[in-house]
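<instruction>
Derive structure tokens from the sequence

<record> Sequence and structure tokens follow
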Amino acid sequence: MNKLFQQKFLYALGVIFIFPSLAMAHTGIGDTSGFMHGFSHPVYGVDHLLAMVAVGLWAAQQGGRATWIVPGAFVSVMILGGMLGFSGWPVVFLEAGILTSVLVMGILIVGAFRFPTRVSVLIVGFFALFHGYAHGAEMPASLGAVSYSLGFALSTAIIHSVGIIAGLGLQKLQIDKIARYAGGAIMLSGIYLAMA
């Protein structure tokens, strides 16, 4: 199993290195209207996807109430960030904030850092503002804005759940070191995306 995991890991990492353009899930790209566009937006950018999975993995590592409170806080603050993006409120260092979230979340997973839940909520909440802003800046200025918001919030919650389920499953199988390897891959991907 370990050899199979290593092969899949290297394949996935190779795809990220070969196709960095997959990281373009940011403002001004593509048609954006309605629930399905909002739902698909977090999935199309590697940086968004990595950060969302990382939040779930890290929450699973923390255990207890943090397993659900931390991702819930991310989604809640992301919606606030989406409103800021939709309203045109200026946010500086948007791309840097998103890429830093990937790097930092990877580091937190590698080190299996545990903080009081409120500190963890502050960490993910800070990064959620950047991710939400990117989603909100593409939100359509019509009645579709509500459905678009619901779409990206639901998609984010599902991606967090994938990270949580993976993290808890690895713990149950007593191979939770694999989560740390995944954190390392997320961290390296953040470095690569920042330089691409």
Observations:
- The chain is about 80% helix and 0% strand.
- The radius of gyration is 16 Å.
- Residues 13-32 have pLDDT under 50 and may be disordered.
- Helices lie at 2-18, 34-44, 46-62, 66-87, 94-110, 117-137, 144-172, 177-195.
